[in-house]
Amino acid sequence: MPTPFTRQLKLLKRPKSSAGLHLENTPAFGRFRRARENMKHLRLLFFLALVLVQERRSHFAAKAEDGGGFVKTEGVHFMLNGSPFYANGFNAYWLMFLASYPSQRAKVTSAFQEATSHGLSIARTWAFSDGGYMPLQSSPGSYNEQMFQGLDFVISEAKKFGIKLVLSLVDNYEALGGKKRYVEWARSQGQPIASDDDFFTNPVVKGYYKNHIRTVLTRRNSVTGIAYKDDPTIMAWELMNEVRCPSDPSGRTIQAWITEMASYVKSFDGNHLLEAGLEGFYAQSSAQKQQNNPSFLVGTDFIENNQIPGIDFATVHSYPDQWLSDPSVGNQISFLSNWVNTHIQDAQNVLHKPLLFAEFGISSKDSGYNQNERDQFFDTVYSAIYSSARGGGAAAGSMFWQLLTVGMDSYRDGYEIVLSESPSTASVIAQQSQKLNKIRKMYARLKNIEEWKKANNRRNDGGN
């Protein structure tokens, strides 16, 4: 619909008046010329303002996103505040333990600070410690407030630095209690426990675990006052770190357990995403892909376990230096590349869910290790993720194992990354963060431009 200005413009463009006078010599044309010049200036100012808005939005995009909003899923993408969310991140299982001692909390702050300076925006850590020394849960239903306050601090500090958290609820391994401690608790109460794998089937053990889920999710943070289930700093819950049930290689036992526990988590918390804690091993549902596995089975099924409706996204771990009998770097890199790309394709084409590489690493204690090998290892994972993300694929990010800060020698396991000590690896990490952040900014710009176009079209349709 033509506006009053465009109608005036059409009239003034006639070459001559009925009296044969040239328009440029008329008062009307003078007014039009001044109006046209003013309009040029207004258009220029509007364009510059739009550019500034876009730049400011891009510059503060991460801060705005981290300031509020739960990470959700939409098809194969994570979404945050209406835009696809891609994240480079790290594991730091130790955060709660150090934070439970006020004198050690500076290390938690330092780790988050160093992480954000390298563009890292997601972290995975433990929300469990079962029995033993300084436990979170000393016995079924009995919790150590000092440890819980340590976790409170971790969450509040992550919020300050704009870092989203993935919190794991129990361990497959016994170092910090894990499923072994749960079955021991049940056995001491007279339950007929045959093996640690009864964790997944014994009703008393499952009751203990459900109580832990409820206790953690409904915990009110002593620092922020926000219940965990209502805190957008938490991106997702993980049912178990590296869930395994070797006594049933078919994957059916784990399938039933994940289905039950996913439903239970969702009954308390409709805000957060949930993942199972899988490493990515294939089983009977995709027999042709079992050739991609290392030469052992752990009772999980990457395809079927991740197709459970309550599971929002898939996870993969990768440690070819532990999994393969051939220690050669070439063989490890070849396995890693195939492992990463196969799972990206399955998340994209079969699961139709986002994929997060929740753990990967290579140990400095391996025979013949050198820094270049680690950098190549990281680059193999990062390149596959970036290639997928750039094309709108299912790979959404990764978290290396593990980040430490200076003064944490007792936590070194060979896989640790102290950013200040490993400049070449730190550079590889920062470059990946920058590349994924550019994708996030691109989508944010496209979203803003589309919103502006829609608003402009509505204004034009209204004849204003």
From TrEMBL:
**A single GO BP annotation from the record?**
polysaccharide catabolic process
Sorted keywords for this record are:
Glycosidase, Hydrolase, Secreted
Q: Name one GO molecular function term.
A: mannan endo-1,4-beta-mannosidase activity
Q: Which residues form the signal peptide?
A: none
Residues in domain Glycoside hydrolase family? Answer: 70-402
Major enzyme class: hydrolase
Record EC number: 3.2.1.78
Q: Which reaction does it catalyse?
A: Random hydrolysis of (1->4)-beta-D-mannosidic linkages in mannans, galactomannans and glucomannans
Cellular component, GO, one term: extracellular region
Among InterPro entries, the record links this protein to: GH (IPR017853), Glyco_hydro_5 (IPR001547), MAN-like (IPR045053)
Q: Where in the cell is it found?
A: Secreted
- Family membership noted in the UniProt record: Belongs to the glycosyl hydrolase 5 (cellulase A) family.
**Classification via PANTHER family:** MANNAN ENDO-1,4-BETA-MANNOSIDASE 1 (PTHR31451:SF60), PTHR31451
Name listed for the protein in its UniProt record: mannan endo-1,4-beta-mannosidase
